[in-house]
Design goal:
Elements lengths: L2 H8 L6 H11 L10 E5 L2 H5 L1 H5 L8 H11 L3 E4 L1 H5 L11 E4 L1 E2 L12 E2 L3 H6 L4 E6 L7 E6 L14 H13 L4 E4 L9 H9 L7 H11 L6 E5 L6 H13 L4 E3 L2 H4 L3 H16 L4
Parallel strand pairs: 1-2, 1-10, 2-3, 3-6, 6-7, 7-8, 8-9, 9-10
Antiparallel strand pairs: 4-5
Length: 288
């Protein structure tokens, strides 16, 4: 085990040996094993956005097994998905990639000003499928499994810009850490400041948020001064150069990696493998 992985595990002193073992499995898997960086393939978009919006652009992605293969061939640290997708391939691909079961999901069949999540899986399901972690979305403890929280600010009290504002994103990361998350997933923060009271403090203390790397560093700082693993979502499909620039900013800002779904599986597998290889190379320092 690398010294960096040992250091990260030392931050979780109150957790059981079983939880630490599962965290270690995440941190020592795939191309980035031992670096302390993570690239995770998440495929909950079929529920969150609908099957056609998620998979029609690359029809093989309708098959749950496709995503296991993509995560394995690309060398991802883990593959995260809801219950049905994991059940469809967990036995066939057992032991070949760490799995994260997403326990709750939200669909878009009904527009809601204040959306909520439905419980779609359980810790018992995660244990049965051999998962290393569970994933849970919150809008602002388990049987030795690591906990990944999708912390996405949303609701009628926030403007659209406010959902990715720096102050709100940092707040979301902090709340997830306070709730006991081992790994925290947030969206990349914009330069916008949403809360008037927070804006005064940011300006008075001259918190540096001018560049994306600076904003990433601030969000990581908000999660126990960088002693919790914070990863950033890839978002909607975008041009490669934009994604690679974002990865560089995450890397340079001290972020722990990316969780990239649509930008991975919404392209043909050879293109996806090349794309993910570049992302991992940027994190590993083998590419600039």
């Amino acid at each position: 085990m690398s010294e960096r992985v040992k250091e990260i595990l030392s931050w979780y002193g109150s957790d059981s040996p079983g939880t630490l073992t599962n965290l270690a499995r995440l941190l020592t898997a795939g191309t980035l094993a031992g670096t302390g960086k993570l690239v995770i393939l998440p495929v909950d978009q079929g529920v969150e956005h609908g099957p056609a919006r998620s998979f029609a652009v690359n029809p093989p992605a309708y098959d749950p097994r496709y995503h296991f293969e993509l995560a394995i061939e690309a060398g991802c640290n883990a593959y995260a998905a809801p219950l049905g997708f994991l059940e469809a391939g967990a036995r066939e691909f057992a032991g070949r990639v760490p799995l994260i079961l997403k326990l709750n999901n939200h669909d878009v069949l009904l527009e809601e000003k204040d959306p909520n999540q439905a419980i779609t899986g359980s810790v018992r399901d995660a244990l049965r499928l051999g998962c290393v972690a569970i994933g849970f979305t919150i809008y602002p403890g388990s049987e030795h499994l690591a906990v990944v929280i999708w912390s996405y600010p949303r609701g009628s009290g926030l403007s659209k810009d406010g959902e990715t504002a720096t102050d709100v994103t940092a707040y979301a990361a902090h709340i997830a850490a306070q709730l006991g998350a081992h790994i925290i997933k947030v969206k990349l923060p914009s330069a916008h400041l949403e809360q008037a009271a927070a804006k005064k403090v940011y300006e008075a203390t001259q918190v540096r948020i001018g560049t994306l790397a600076e904003r990433v560093r601030h969000v990581v700082q908000a999660a126990f001064n960088g002693r919790r693993i914070v990863i950033f979502s890839g978002g909607a499909a975008a041009k490669d150069d934009q994604v690679f620039d974002e990865v560089r900013a995450i890397r340079d800002g001290g972020g722990f990696g990316s969780i990239i779904g649509r930008n991975s599986f919404q392209r043909k597998k050879p293109d996806a493998l090349k794309f993910l290889g570049t992302v991992m190379g940027l994190y590993a320092g083998t590419q600039k």
